[in-house]
Write a structure and sequence with these properties.
The protein is of the alpha+beta class and 398 residues long. It has two domains: 18-237, P-loop containing nucleotide triphosphate hydrolases (Rossmann fold, 3-Layer(aba) Sandwich), CATH 3.40.50.300; 257-397, OB fold (Dihydrolipoamide Acetyltransferase, E2P) (Beta Barrel), CATH 2.40.50.140. 20% of the residues lie in helices and 31% in strands. It has eight helices and 21 strands. Strands 6-7-8-3-9-10 form a six-stranded mixed β-sheet, sandwiched between helices. It has a six-stranded antiparallel β-sheet with strand order 13-12-11-14-20-21. Strands 15-19-16-17-18 form a five-stranded antiparallel β-sheet, with no helix packed on it. β16 and β17 (333-340) form a beta hairpin. α2 (111-121) crosses α3 (127-137) and α2 runs parallel beside α4. Residues 382-391 have low confidence and may be disordered. Bound molecules: adenosine-5'-triphosphate and magnesium ion.
């Protein structure tokens, strides 16, 4: 029987659990202050799980991957693959496939030879078929006989990805593996990557700056900042229950609105003269200044009614008065940029497609209490260390 199933690339490795325990890295270079790039991170990744590592530039993502791969020395902590601590193993013996943004292809060798190199080093007897198969699945058969110098950056990147995958590594580390591909190819290669990952069960960490990519690929997200994992959870957990202001702000598109408010004590939070929102934060004393996080997707809008014309059922003050500055119709939904009465800055509100708004409209914005996040409003210290705990700058107040 013939099927249209993609050709398989070889026997699946046994999926391995990957654990990081208090992993640290301090860079020391002569004449410079030591710099702690990774500050003791813990991660426990299930066998065959795909984790996306997200965080701003310089937060320590590449450093973390390079330590796991054995390409960077470790200052402290442990790396375990399965039950084996791999700290004493050289890179070549860790059974970790790496695809980093700097392609590191061997210039004198053809693409085919670049892909075959690692397999030959392991005396693999099925080199040609494995190379042909992975090339076909990543849409790069026509590149096999070229040399790296003759490839575009997107093509080089696919070669680097193929080279990481062709050996069927139990652990796969990818640093921005699709960043140079054009939009269409990026989506296709992304899907194929996920299919391959599911088929072979590589335990995978992928670094990406593209949130959609992270959401579409990952079982769980690890959000990192300042050398610290700020939150590790499923995309829904990260989006619906952010641990702190950094995570709330970093994940989500359009970004969450962050406003200054004051807890009232009756289950609401007041935002200047604009009104109040319900907020379920029983631990926050009345009068305390907080940062209020409100996602554009969680806003409910309706035309503003003066106090006298409001239905009685609606509690007064539970709603923000806003004036529409710009309305963007994005077909599936609309985005309104609004100004709140008496508050600086702007707020972005997502509305359903039918609910067309126009510049100058006055509206009322409400949200469910559990979707109004409160964060500690203390200034964040310049050192930028963990903001994980409640009652520290940016910590979530519940
Ligand atoms: N060899 C090195 N010597 C000294 N400092 C370094 C070295 N490599 C990286 N750093 C510093 O460590 C920090 C983390 O770097 P890293 O490359 O891990 O960041 P990243 O999260 O991968 O960022 P990006 O998203 O820009 O790739 C940065 O502040 C960087 O300047
Ligand atoms: Mg990096």
């Amino acid at each position: 029987m013939t099927t249209d199933a993609p050709p398989r690339t070889g026997a699946a490795p046994v999926a391995q659990r990957l654990r990081l325990e208090q992993l640290r890295k301090t860079y020391r270079s002569r004449g410079r202050e030591p710099f702690e790039a990774v500050k003791g991170i813990d991660l426990d990744i299930e066998p065959g799980e795909l984790v996306a590592l997200l965080g701003p530039s310089g937060c320590g993502k590449t450093t973390t991957l390079r330590m796991i791969a054995g390409l960077e020395t470790v200052t402290g902590g442990r790396i375990l693959i399965g039950d084996r601590s791999v700290g004493d193993l050289p890179a070549g013996r860790r059974q970790v496939g790496v695809g980093f943004e700097s392609y590191a292809l061997y210039p004198p060798l053809s693409v085919r030879e670049n892909l075959a190199y690692g397999l030959r080093a392991r005396r693999d007897r099925d080199v040609r078929r494995k190379v042909d198969t992975i090339a076909e699945r990543l849409e790069m058969t026509e590149l096999l006989e070229l040399r790296p110098a003759n490839l575009s950056s997107g093509q080089k990147q696919r070669v680097a990805l193929a080279r990481a995958l062709v050996r069927n590594p139990p652990v796969l580390l990818l640093d921005e593996p699709l960043s140079h591909l054009d939009a269409g190819q990026r989506q296709r290669v992304r899907r194929e990557l996920k299919v391959l990952q599911r088929e072979f069960g590589y335990t995978t960490i992928i670094v990406t700056h593209d949130q959609l990519e992270a959401l579409s690929l990952a079982d769980r997200l690890a959000v990192m900042d300042g050398g610290v994992i700020q939150q590790f959870g499923t995309p829904d957990e990260i989006f619906d229950d952010p641990a702190n202001q950094f995570v709330a702000d970093f994940v989500g598109e359009p970004p969450i609105n962050l406003l200054t408010g004051v807890a009232v004590g009756d289950g609401t939070v007041r935002l200047g003269d604009a009104g109040a929102l319900p907020a379920s934060a029983s631990s926050v004393p009345a009068g305390r200044q907080v940062v209020v996080g409100l996602r554009p997707q969680d806003c409910r809008t309706e035309p503003w009614l003066p106090e006298s014309r409001r239905p009685e059922a609606r509690p007064t003050g539970a709603g923000l008065r806003a004036t529409v500055l710009v309305y963007e119709n994005l077909l599936e939904y609309g985005l309104a940029t609004v100004e709140l009465a008496g508050l600086p800055g702007r707020v972005v509100v997502q509305v359903t497609a039918g609910q067309t708004l126009a510049a100058g409209d006055t509206i009322s914005i409400t949200a469910a209490a559990e979707r109004v996040y409160l964060f500690d409003a203390t200034e964040r210290s310049a050192s930028g260390t963990s903001i994980n705990t409640e009652d520290s700058a940016g910590g979530r107040l519940r």
